[in-house]
């Protein structure tokens, strides 16, 4: 029996998927709140969308039925890594421009950055498991 097919590997994959799903939900909620706050404080158009952010690869979900789980993980990993870089840049710019004047926004950015970093870790772990064998599609 291959290592990826062992009960412990399957349990680890299931645990990573479950925690990743919970983290993604929390992250989505926090990103929506952060965007609302940012738009309000910057006086931007409230119809701003995060569906397409320059520098972050698109999810291309219309092709997912043609891809393997590993291919989907790799695309998501690339997108979240790019998102993490952009968030880190935003946080640095925020600190330089506003300093401590808007600490709540800075804390929210830092929190989302931490969540995205954790999600990247989860995707990397799932990808490692997928490359060791043929995990179940979840």
TrEMBL record:
Q: Which keywords describe this protein according to UniProt?
A: Cytoplasm, Developmental protein, Differentiation, Growth factor, Neurogenesis
Task: Return the GO cellular component terms, semicolon-separated.
Answer: axon; cytoplasm; extracellular space
- Determine the domain of life of the protein's source: Eukaryota
Q: What is its main location?
A: cytoplasm
SUPFAM superfamilies named among the record's database cross-references: 4-helical cytokines
List, alphabetically, the Pfam families matched. Answer: CNTF
Q: Which GO terms describe its molecular function?
A: ciliary neurotrophic factor receptor binding; cytokine activity; growth factor activity
Q: Which GO terms describe its biological process?
A: astrocyte activation; ciliary neurotrophic factor-mediated signaling pathway; negative regulation of neuron apoptotic process; positive regulation of axon regeneration
Q: Where in the cell is it found?
A: Cytoplasm
What's this protein's family per the entry?
Answer: Belongs to the CNTF family.
Q: What job does the chain carry out?
A: CNTF is a survival factor for various neuronal cell types. Seems to prevent the degeneration of motor axons after axotomy.
Q: What is this protein called?
A: Ciliary neurotrophic factor
Q: Which organism is it from?
A: Dromas ardeola
């Amino acid at each position: 029996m291959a290592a990826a097919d062992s009960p412990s590997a399957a349990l680890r994959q299931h645990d990573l998927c479950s925690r990743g799903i919970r983290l993604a939900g929390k992250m989505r909620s926090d990103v929506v709140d952060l965007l609302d706050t940012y738009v309000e404080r910057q006086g931007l158009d409230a119809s701003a969308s995060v569906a397409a952010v320059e520098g972050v690869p698109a999810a291309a979900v219309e092709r997912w039925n043609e891809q393997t789980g590993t291919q989907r993980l790799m695309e998501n990993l690339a997108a979240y890594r790019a998102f993490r870089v952009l968030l880190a840049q935003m946080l640095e710019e925020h600190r330089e421009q506003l300093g401590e004047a808007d600490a709540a926004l800075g804390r929210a950015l830092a929190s989302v950055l931490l969540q995205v970093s954790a999600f990247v870790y989860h995707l990397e772990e799932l990808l490692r498991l997928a490359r060791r064998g043929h995990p179940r599609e979840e």
